[in-house]
Structure formats: C-alpha cells, structure tokens
Design goal:
About 70% of the residues lie in helices and about 5% in strands. The chain is mostly helical and about 150 residues long. A hairpin with a 2-residue loop joins β1 and β2. The longest helix is centred in the N-terminal third of the chain and has 27 residues, at about 5-30.
Length: about 150
Amino acid sequence: MDWNAELVLSIRILLAAILGGVIGWERENHNRDAGVRTYMAVAVGACAFSIISNHVPGETTRIASQVVAGMGFIGAGVILQVKGRVQGLTTAATLWATAAVGMASAFGMYLLSGLTALIILGTLSLHHVPGWAKFVKKHHAPTDPIERDE
C-alpha cells in the first residue's frame, strides 16, 4: 500500500475518532457510564474493521455484518432491568449507531458519517429540550416497563 492511501485511511480513522468522541462527550457530560473513551473506541474499532474488510477480497460484507452483530452483543450487555424498569437502551442504541459512524468513515462516506453523528447528537439532545420531559411524561403509558435512558 502506498503512502497516499495510508494517509487517506488515517484521515478516516481520525474522523471516526473525533465524531465518536463528540458523541461520547455528550453522554459523559450527562453523567452516563459510557463516555468519550467508549464511543471513540466503538467508532475507531468499527472504522478499522471496515477498512480491513474493504482490503480483503470478498470479505467486505461478512466483516461489516459482524461489526453490526458484535455491537448488538455489546449493547445487550449495557441494558439492565432495575426495579422493573429497563435502563441503558439509549446507550446501547447510540453505541450501535456510533459503529455506523465509524464504518461510514472507513468507506470514505464523510458526509454520511458526519450527518449520522449529528443526528445521534440531536437525538440525545432531545432529552434536554425545555418541555420535552413533560411531553414524554404526559404521553407515556404508565404500564410500559421501558423507560428512557436519561
């Protein structure tokens, strides 16, 4: 592999790290257990596996699908049931989606990776919009055991 190609791949890894870190910063800033380091690791790992899969003939879809399945496994470990309430769903979902940010970066889809990161951040920010908690509480079924991951 030539130096120019290595430079492009390095930029992709850095982009994944930055975008994953920004998402993790938002979570850490709101006192969630999974923070900057976790989200950066997910994005960079997904990016690296995707870069590798892109350079191994015939393995692109197989390795990419394993990244998705692996993140599902990690996400399942984040979800807990405490006192009849389910916690960690948002963390699990955003970790899984952050893997997509890393994969998009790996395949050179810079706009897609940035937009995906912004949408994830926007989704996480909804909880902090004035009046949002009141709206959710008003429209939340009292028998529903699934609670928001604040």
